[in-house]
Amino acid sequence: MATLTSIGHAGLAVEASAFTLVFDPWMSPHGAYMGSWFQFPRNDHIDVKSLTSATYVAISHEHLDHMDFWFLEQLSDETTVLIPTYPSDTLIDRIRETGVTNIVKIAPWERFTLNDGESWITTIPQPSPLYHDSAFLIVAEGRSVLNCNDAKLIASQTRRAKHMAGGRLDVMAVQASSATWHPMRYSYDEEEERRIAMEKRIAKLVSVQRLIRATGAELAIPFAGPPCFLDPELRDVNWVLDTENGAFVHPEAARSWLSEHLPRQVFQTLKPGDRLDLETLEVTRDPVSARFSFTEGVEEYIQRYAEDRAEILEKLHVEYPEPGPDFPERFVNHFVRLGSLSTYFLKHIDMTVRFEITGPNGGVWDVRMNADGLAIGPATTERPGYTISVQGRWVEPILAGELAWEDLLLSLRMRLHRDPDVFNGYLVGLLKHANAPALQAIEEYETGRDEGDRIVVTDGDRTFEIARYCPHAGEDLSEGAVIEDGKVQCLGHFFTFDLATGECVNARCNPLTTREITAS
């Protein structure tokens, strides 16, 4: 009898008669992202030793709430780590830093046989290589689990997964809480910040709703977040956890919303330690987690939690000291290297980004990126498209090669301003990957797509023929889009296009091919 146990956040454990497999365990008492994120609810009552001796540990991607260094450093030498195959070796290299050597890459849709010969696992990456996120599909003792994790799959992928599992998905675990630094770290007033947060919250839930409906799993489990914030410098961000209005959706709020919109679908939520029987789909509740509530006494819970982690939080500034006098030179050299990685990305960024680095040995630099290359120097009178303000102590680990820019962005330990207020995905992509093979794979994907496939959509009394696939990351707009008010919003990453012109109205992106059809 195979079982599925929540170990908190995005962590799941499958126990079968011949093996145990742990997905994305985040167990560190130090939290993640330089002590900014902490597990919510906490999961420190879970027996870590039993997890570190698992037959397999599957790590979906390099985000630090999925790839836990603290956990991996304790892993048994007998444990095999399974990872997806990505265009760059960033994930495998970072896992190797922990001392783990027994690592197996699994190609997309390739079955990796588990110990008993009857069970297997495969990986399902997001369509665009811009996002190194992947789902896992596992069949254990005849029962199937599609663990979507943070991957924003499209409906055709989940249908293929269901077919591969024999025409039935017993469990579909899907992330319903997008962790992001927008709008919380941007220069909006409170009213605008809350409005954008609610808009993104609903768009995410609609996206999850459509994917679940298209997949038709026997049981759907919204999971994988959100975190909470214990550091005094970030405690104000915990408004994102509000059940009704928060930017991050906790599992029970997601289940309530999804159940209302998909009344025929069976849903379940799991807290750390809750165990699901994959044969009967019955849940045995963990007695410790049963005392936790997402809606009652949350402020008091976080306060006690912060007190328990006070010593760890106090050590933060010691672990991340202010940078030395060589910081300016190293900062400039870092961007010179980034500028050598991809002319394609520089051309599409096409703006100046201002970095305001505060604290000892900081300064203000303008980084201009366009078709002519990258140039970095002191701030000028030019109006920057992005302004990023951050303490030097949080940038130092990036220059040392210990963290990525995306880790800093997700930590929420910075402030940003956009002028105009338009997302530049190419800028974020360059900072996120900072790796030539990964950037080359994205360029090849974006320039090699077949744009010939079209669909017809209606908006009121107007009809348009548009490209079937979103020009950003390839989401199938025939299944993953909202058409209204003269616009089409892709539910993959919420890019919005003007139906009349095809221009993206909320991000830097290639236009959507579109033409209005005149009624005969």
From TrEMBL:
Residues 432-520 form the Rieske domain. Signal peptide: none annotated. The keyword Iron-sulfur applies. Pfam families: Lactamase_B_2 (PF12706), Rieske (PF00355). PROSITE patterns: RIESKE (PS51296). Keywords: 2Fe-2S, Iron, Iron-sulfur, Metal-binding. Transmembrane segments: none annotated. InterPro entries: Metallo-B-lactamas, RibonucZ/Hydroxyglut_hydro, Rieske_2Fe-2S, Rieske_2Fe-2S_sf, UPF0173_UPF0282_UlaG_hydrolase. PANTHER family: UPF0173 METAL-DEPENDENT HYDROLASE MJ1163-RELATED. This is Rieske 2Fe-2S iron-sulfur protein. It comes from Microbispora corallina.
